[in-house]
Amino acid sequence: QVQLVESGGGSVQAGGSLRLSCSASGDSSSRVYMGWFRQAPGKGREGVAGIRPGDGTTYYADSVKGRFTISRDNAKNVYLQMNSLKPEDTAMYYCAAANYVLRPLDWAEYSYWGQGTQVTVSS
């Protein structure tokens, strides 16, 4: 079992930055794949970024490449640095974890989810 708690959401103007944090706890939390997903009102859940345990390989959706950075420290906390935010980035952001994934940006592959944190970007 892995428990996830997100923080760091909020409201910001377009062009601004936010940093989301996800704290993982549980026996296997240092050995899991972790990802950030988002869901805007009326839309499906979208993979934003993922990070592999061990070598820390990262994965990004095309829509956020060059603007968002996923990172991990001491293998139990994961962050999403979001720069140059756009109104279309407005969504509920979720942290997720899985023991193993083939497609790091596919939400269906993740077993553990946080409660979400809201990000609102105004124009």
Q: Rg from C-alpha positions?
A: 13 Å
**Beta-strand percentage?**
over 45%
Poorly predicted regions are none
**Can you give the mean pLDDT?**
94
Instruction: Tell me the helix content.
Output: under 10%
Number of helices: 0
The rounded distance between the terminal residues' Cα atoms is 40 Å
Label the overall shape: globular
Count of β-strands: 11
The SSE order reads EEEEEEEEEEE
How would you classify the helix and strand content by structural class?
A: mainly beta
- Tell me the major beta sheet: 7 strands, mixed
Summarize the structure in words:
The chain is 0% helix and 50% strand. By secondary structure, it is an all-beta fold. Strands 2, 4, 5, 6, 9, 10 and 11 form a 7-stranded mixed sheet that branches. The chain has a 4-stranded antiparallel sheet with strand order 1-3-8-7, with no helix packed on it. The model has no long low-confidence stretch (mean pLDDT 94).
